[in-house]
Amino acid sequence: MNANTRAEFFARLRAADPAPQTELAYESPFQLLIAVILSAQATDRSVNLATKPLFAVAPDPESMLALGEEGLISYINRIGLYRNKAKNVIATCRLLLERHGGEVPATRAELEALPGVGRKTANVVLNVVFGEHTIAVDTHIFRVGNRTGLAKGKTPLAVEQKLLRHVPAEFREHAHHWLILHGRYVCKARRPECWRCPVADLCDYRDKSPLP
Hints:
By secondary structure, the chain is mainly alpha-helical. The chain folds into two domains: 87 residues, Endonuclease Iii, domain 2, CATH 1.10.1670.10; 100 residues, Hypothetical protein, domain 2 (Endonuclease III, domain 1, Orthogonal Bundle), CATH 1.10.340.30. Helix content is 58%, strand content 0%. It has ten helices and no strands. α2 packs antiparallel against α7, α3 packs across α4 and α8 packs across α9. The longest helix is centred in the middle third of the chain and has 19 residues. The chain is elongated.
């Protein structure tokens, strides 16, 4: 895929959804951070079902730390890996209070120093909260990057690095969400819905799906 094709690719995604947003529900940077930690190997829908009552009683690091691990588990026990996530969330709340005055830090190094926060989670927070042009490569973006030819790579980091090099500057702010949503709802894992894809003619994927 050449530069002109990539520009057209993102122009079409923008035309279909000019201002994409994360589907995780949150009302503060802290709540987004917690929601993203919980979303690892879980759907946004399952996370939102858990965080709605959780954030009602524990909207900030102080109140969530006061819940403790067992108290937190009572809200998130339907999410995968909930015990390990509860441990990380409580530890993260403690560090936010001890090191950052209860605020979510704005640098990658500080974010990745928090328990349960890896590169992908840090990228989401940096992009959504702080407006940085980062791309968090989840399973959807990894699939879309490789399948379409937009950014092929054997690892999420390789795909991320290619996207950061190749996505035209005017599209970098929202590229992360366009690609996630495209992979979630159109370029699906088992059967991509190519018949309704706005970029099907730009894509390298050969086995274009017929109409349903």
